[in-house]
Specification:
It contains 13 helices and four strands. By secondary structure, the chain is mainly alpha-helical. The protein binds benzoyl coenzyme A.
């Protein structure tokens, strides 16, 4: 159904018959699973949607380094420290692939960063929560990277070539990220003391609901989903992916011997999945408005990092200019 329609207002999508020739040809390519590349014609809305989603995704990877980086210098063993360092560096790489993919759509990196630093561009709500204990690092790997994989695996099939290819590289690294988090939690829960297991339970209590919010608002309130699915930017709705995540994660919590903090969580035979409790959407919207526990700290840290790095960017520019001048002199 989606593949035959294009948006004319917030909810109604144009049919193929209502499109002009260029738009129809574009939609037919999308419907035939032919990738759209940077130089191809595309509707303005498609370009805008991709710039919004890819740049916000890139910002999430970059801001997402901050909560875990908080624990690099305090990791409990040398091995855990090396693993965490590698993971946080991977996140920087993901951010860079994604900024490159967004640049192919005609926005510059400086413009994207200005939007982040001014608070205009969003990044994932999840990174506005604090990492209070070492168990939080395990939770980020298990739940946050687990949710990210659930969302990103279908994005590998996104209709826009550069985004889809960036996601293939990102997904290769995400399974290691999820695995290292779960492994740290297995150590705390199966080999640790009662206090360490309690620390893991406390972390789960704090991270469970924000992880479910990562998938975005419920389908009925998702303003972009119908259009993004018609354009095959998104392959699944927010609620579909959230449900798959819950179904995958509950048995993993059981294996750890941890309790998911949801009294309404119950297996539903008829739907072949878990029923779960109501998400606190007021909290989600508060965090999106900038009023989460760490929003201010996260943005301040990014702006400071950008300002502190000015000398390095200027050095690179000066070097490039000197090199170009030398080349020009040699050619003259
Ligand atoms: N947080 O119409 P909807 C990682 C916004 S990083 C904040 O459903 P859409 C990692 C949404 O942007 C992985 N905002 O939107 C890194 C929209 O507002 P705007 C991050 C959210 O785009 C380091 C409005 O709500 N992954 O894994 O169709 C360490 C309405 O929503 C959120 C990605 O970025 C949210 N959770 O669907 C560890 C995946 N949810 O833009 C781990 C790529 C919704 O109109 N993005 N909003 O102002 C997507 O797949 C989609 O953009 C979403 C939302 C599913 C997130």
């Amino acid at each position: 159904m989606y593949a035959q329609q294009i948006k004319t207002d917030a909810r109604r999508l144009k049919t193929l018959e209502e499109m002009d020739d260029q738009e129809r040809a574009f939609q037919e390519r999308v419907d035939a699973d032919i990738k759209i590349e940077a130089k191809d014609w595309m509707p303005d809305g498609y370009r805008k949607t991709l710039i919004r989603q890819i740049s916000q995704h890139a910002h999430s990877e970059i801001v997402g380094q901050l909560p875990e980086a908080n624990w690099i210098s305090r990791a409990p063993t040398l091995e855990r420290k090396a693993i965490l360092l590698a993971k946080v560096q991977d996140e920087a790489g993901h951010g860079l692939y994604l900024y490159c993919a967004a640049e192919t759509l005609g926005i510059s990196r400086d413009q994207m960063l200005a939007q982040l630093h001014s608070g205009k561009a969003k990044y994932s709500s999840i990174f506005n929560y604090p990492t209070l204990t070492w168990a939080d690092v395990g939770m980020i790997g298990w739940l946050v990277d687990g949710a990210a994989i659930m969302n990103q695996v279908p994005l590998q099939r996104c209709s826009y070539g550069p985004y889809s290819r960036a996601m293939i590289r990102v997904c290769k690294e995400e399974s290691f990220h999820q695995r290292q988090g779960y492994d740290a939690l297995i150590t705390l829960c199966h080999k640790g003391t009662a206090a360490q297991k309690a620390m893991a339970q406390d972390a789960l209590d704090r991270w469970w609901w924000p992880s479910l919010m990562m998938f975005g608002p419920p389908d009925g309130e998702s303003i972009h989903s119908a259009q993004s699915m018609a354009w095959k930017i998104k392959q699944n709705s927010n609620d579909e992916l959230r449900q798959k995540f819950v179904d995958q994660t509950v048995p993993q919590a059981d294996y750890l011997g941890l309790t998911i903090p949801d009294p309404d969580l119950k297996w539903n035979d008829a739907k072949g999945g878990y029923d779960f409790g109501e998400i606190d959407w007021d909290e989600f919207h508060r965090v999106l408005r900038g009023d989460g526990p760490c929003n201010k700290q996260r943005l301040d840290d990014r702006v400071t990092a950008w300002e502190d790095g000015a000398w390095y960017r200027e050095g690179l520019m000066a070097h490039a200019e000197k090199k170009a001048a030398r080349r020009a002199a040699a050619a003259a």
